[in-house]
Amino acid sequence: MKPRIHPVSRPVVFRDRAADVAFLTRSTADSGARVTWEDGNTYPVIDVETSSASHPFYAGGRQVLDTAGRVERFRRRYGTDEASRS
Q1: Within a domain: residue 85?
Q2: What GO MF terms are annotated (predicted)?
Q3: What mean pLDDT comes out for the span 63-78?
Q4: Which of 25, 53, 56, 69 could form a disulfide with 21 if both were Cys (CB 3.0 to 4.6 A apart)?
């Protein structure tokens, strides 16, 4: 490996707000926000919308994460509703 061209890898906490779960892992990402972890040390924290704890594929559910109202907007625009499919 060439010296001084690779980013520094450090411990970082990734926090999933939807599932209220946090993971401590190594990453090259950095953040100005800090959090105190279970071991008493302070680490940078990065908030994510979806992780393996809340994603329907990994969680085993068929939940729809629709934070922006996209499904309702699609149904209004194209005139599809639940009653017409039955």
Answers
A1: no
A2: structural constituent of ribosome
A3: 73
A4: 53
Please enumerate in sequence order all residues whose Cβ is within 8 A of that of 13, keeping only pairs 6 or more positions apart, or say none: 22, 23, 24, 35, 37, 43, 44, 45, 46
The pLDDT mean for the chain works out to 81
Q: Which two tokens stand for residue 18?
A: 């939807």
Asked whether residue 1 is domain-assigned, the answer is no
Indicate whether 2 belongs to any domain: no
Per the structure, the count of domains in the chain is 1
Q: Supply the range of the domain harboring residue 55.
A: 10-80
For 8-38, the pLDDT digits (tens) are 899 999 998 888 889 899 999 988 999 999 9
